[in-house]
Write a structure and sequence with these properties.
Layout: E1 3-7, E2 11-17, E3 20-26, E4 32-34, H1 36-42, H2 46-51, E5 52-57, E6 75-80, H3 85-89, H4 92-100, E7 104-109, E8 125-128, E9 131-132, H5 133-136, E10 141-145, H6 160-167, H7 188-192, E11 202-206, H8 218-231, E12 236-240, H9 247-260, E13 265-268, H10 273-280, E14 285-289, H11 292-300, E15 304-307, E16 323-326, H12 358-361, H13 365-375
Parallel strand pairs: 6-7, 6-10, 7-8, 11-12, 11-14, 12-13, 14-15, 15-16
Antiparallel strand pairs: 1-4, 1-5, 2-3, 4-9
């Protein structure tokens, strides 16, 4: 449901998602393509409403793409706006497939997601919405997915990548599993900045997910982290956070580390996310909720112990050969419920003061430690 918008005066607007943001200035009397979510956000501002001249749905102007319509060397603009970093990573194999079938692949992203597509040899350019309509019209085909499976809570959904393939007319079973993982490429500086960690056995622990329903609450997450550090002293644990993780996580971690006098664990954030990704190929093990690090580790084949709640790992990490999920579906009659929202659904079993999904809460530190010791390299 992308929309075509023309303003009657120049307008400067900021756009932000969990992945990042950007500020853009729009020329008057020139049509621009906005995603549906961007439109919903900017139209909350009365000043934007006053300066909006025309709004139209873009979809009637853009024919549905089908792989049979693709001709060699045609320019294809690919957009997956259904989520954050993980959804971009799961779209890499689709873009590579189009490239291998003769397309000149260009990518459009939401602000902040563009860095996911840097330095991939099968991507000709990376563009960021909103875009001028004239820019979109430069491409022969527009492959747009504003929703894939993230907002589908029913039980028969496909793996997101398989759903992408099916939507463009490709039988996902015809694509070899080995082609459904793509290793990203990195620059020398991205490879070298975190080199100081490579002579140590590193464990990466993602403190929480961008979606609070998919991650452990503060006390549970910190308890899991320190138990891992105590049980696996041969590894140095980097507990990952970014600007979107509440400060309570890092504060509680520091207090507990100091109290227990642990020297092999620290809160860690990478100034450049791609440097963290480059490091992930070399670490001993990753422990992550249903979030970015599960997909980064998966693309490299780095051992990953996944902490799963509402989603089903069978529908997210099928093609990651070294992913080891902890998923206690027996703890909830609704599991997996595939809830996408940031609050617990009303069909959760009644429990006062709920702060964590029952399925996720059932992941004990003992079984996570056992798995880590078994799969860490």
């Amino acid at each position: 449901m992308m929309q075509l918008v023309t303003f009657n005066e120049p307008l400067t607007l900021g756009f932000k998602k969990s992945a990042g943001g950007v500020t853009l200035t729009f020329e008057a009397n020139r049509p621009y393509v906005f995603t549906h979510s961007q439109m919903m956000n900017i139209m909350k501002d009365p000043k934007v409403q006053q300066r909006t001249q025309r709004v139209s749905l873009l979809n009637p102007r853009i024919p549905n793409f089908h792989i049979a319509a693709l001709k060699k060397n045609q320019r294809v603009l690919v957009y997956n706006g259904s989520g954050g970093y993980g959804d971009q990573i799961m779209t890499w194999p689709l873009a590579q497939y189009l490239h291998e079938h003769g397309a000149q692949v260009h990518v459009a992203t939401d602000p902040g997601n563009n860095l996911c597509w840097w330095n991939l040899p099968f991507v000709a350019s990376v563009n960021m919405f909103p875009l001028a309509l004239a820019t979109v019209k430069m491409f022969d085909h527009f492959v747009a997915f504003e929703a894939v499976v993230n907002m589908d809570e029913h039980q028969d959904q496909e793996h997101p990548l398989d759903a992408l393939f099916r939507r463009i007319g490709v039988d996902p079973d015809s694509v070899p599993a080995a082609k459904k993982c793509v290793r990203p490429a990195f620059t020398p500086s991205e490879l070298g900045t975190l080199v100081k960690y490579r002579d140590r056995r590193i464990g990466l622990y993602q403190l929480t997910s961008a979606n609070p329903v998919r991650g452990l609450p503060v006390n549970d997450s910190v308890f899991m982290a320190v138990k891992l550090a105590e049980a696996c002293p041969e590894q140095h644990w980097l507990c990952l956070y970014d600007e979107f993780v509440p400060e309570a996580y890092t504060r509680a971690l520091l207090e507990e580390v100091n109290r227990r006098k642990l020297t092999n664990i620290e809160a860690f954030t990478a100034l450049n996310l791609r440097e963290l990704w480059a490091l992930t190929e070399h670490v001993s093990v990753v422990v992550s909720p249903d979030s970015m690090m599960a997909h980064v580790a998966g693309m490299f084949g780095t051992p990953c112990v996944g902490l799963w709640g509402p989603m089903s790992p069978d529908r997210r990490v099928t093609y990651y050969k070294n992913h080891y999920p902890v998923h206690h579906t027996e703890c909830c009659p609704q599991s997996p419920c595939f809830t996408y929202g940031g609050t617990f659904p009303r069909y959760c079993p009644p429990r006062p003061g709920r702060t964590v999904c029952d399925v996720l809460a059932a992941a004990s530190h003992a079984e996570v430690i056992e798995l880590v010791k078994k799969v860490a390299r």
